[in-house]
Write a structure and sequence with these properties.
By secondary structure, the protein is mainly α. It folds into five domains: about 15-85, no CATH class; about 100-130; about 145-175; about 190-230; about 235-275. It is about 50% helix and about 0% strand. It has helices spanning about 10, 15-25, 55-60, 65-70, 75-85, 100-105, 110-115, 120-130, 145-150, 155-165, 165-175, 190-195, 200-210, 215-220, 230, 235-240, 245-255, 260-265, 280-285. The termini are far apart.
Length: about 290
Amino acid sequence: MKSVRKKPLEQRVQLTEREFKRLLRHAYRPSLRVNKRRRSRGGGGDFRWEWTLAEIQLVGKLPDADVARRIGRTEEAVKCRRIQLGLPKPEAKVPRWTPQEDALVGRFSDKEVARRTRRSAQAVQLRRRVLGMGTLFDRRLKWTRAQDKLLGTAPDDEIGRRLGRKKRAVEKRRLALRIPSKNPAYHHWTKEKEALLGTMPDRELAKFLGVSLIALVAQRQRKHIRSIDASRAWTPAEEALLGTAPDDEVARCLGRTTVAVCLRRRALRIAVFGAKQPGSPAAKAQ
């Protein structure tokens, strides 16, 4: 019996990339190393020519676009190869950071530092992280005693313009020192003014103090003080006026709020002024 000599694997298997892809289906993986420099016409399958040592030495030393233009590859291919080699992205020639520039980082915003150092905001952000200053620049500039004395003497936005700080920073410092605001849009409540809350109707007290009714009611509720309308008992003479005129007119005559008059009238089941009564002549005519 004659012995059969087996052929080498390279001679027995002669399939194109397209045939391999059709046979293996989902298990197919394109070969990464091909000896040919370029794909021949009519050849099947995807393919990438192998990188030479001279090409690999250029990767990471020049920008990806320059390397791609020199070796005749796409920029995406050069980028993928650089990532496979674990090389960082080459940066353009940027001047080194000086100690004077590092002193600005973290003290001002990245945009302001970029304007002063003539760099990009992204470069300042990277430098701040290299220096270990976290994700936000340090807004907590030291306050001097002279600056603290200015707090509360004028509105926060005006103080911020004088000191070169933001309005929010001035407001935060003022609140930390418990200094009242001088903003004309806000009313400063003293102990003497708070002692008057609940001693007279809210509308009259608001007019007397020169504040809005909403601000007065909010301050009274914040201090958990009951309104005089809720604490004062109703007299028979006051109840006799309910329903004889509109609620707002009765409220002005009695020195109470319209809501208090309306609630008391409903509690006594008194119809609103001008409503047709069931036994009235107008109701019978209908």
